[in-house]
Amino acid sequence: MTDYAKLAEDLTRSLALANPPLAITFSKEAPAGVEPFAEPMPSPTEDGRTGRVAAGCVFWMKAAGQTFSTVAEDHGNCSVGSLTHGFKTLEEAGTKADVGTLVEAGWVTPEMFPDIPVVAEKPGVVTYGPLRETPVDPDVVFLRVNAKQAMALSDAFPDMQFEGKPQCHIIPIAKEQNKVALSVGCMLSRVRTGMPNTEMTCAIPGARLEEVVQRIKTTNAIDASVADYAGQDARRFDA
Question: pTM here?
């Protein structure tokens, strides 16, 4: 099996990440030895929505220090996230009050929904956890990044896909389209996760992780050379 602990270390060091890279895996059953996420569910809303967290994106925060598995019901409070992760069809998600509220507010329009990337096959389980301890090959490697780290990723992958709302759809872009994708975030996710305004998110296809790490190392060497030149050149303007 690939040395994911080493790749996680290399990725963290190369980008100077403040938060550990995560492994996200879609499967029929939970990997051996992985326990289910077990926080209690609140009472459902009038349209029947509830889940173990406010939205699936909250699992990104919970997984920084532990590995766990989730099922459709755990994600059920957010119909948008349930759609992008393959748990609900567009027709099912469209009947929920949270989607109605977002449309009424003008945050999305009904015409946008058919174009939102989604996981193609409904999973039985989605597993989250630190990349360094993943028990299986992940489908997606997830990063929380700042502007400089996004710059390095963009330099390494000029064709990287930049996205906005909903933030969670970068997961299916990485999984289904095999593309590195970065999201500037969305208000729905920022409020629910508490993610700082200084952070963005990036999804990397698991199969391309070694390529990504190597490209970032190459980009870092180039940037170091450019930084040295720029620093020396700037000294001419010192008073």
Answer: 0.95
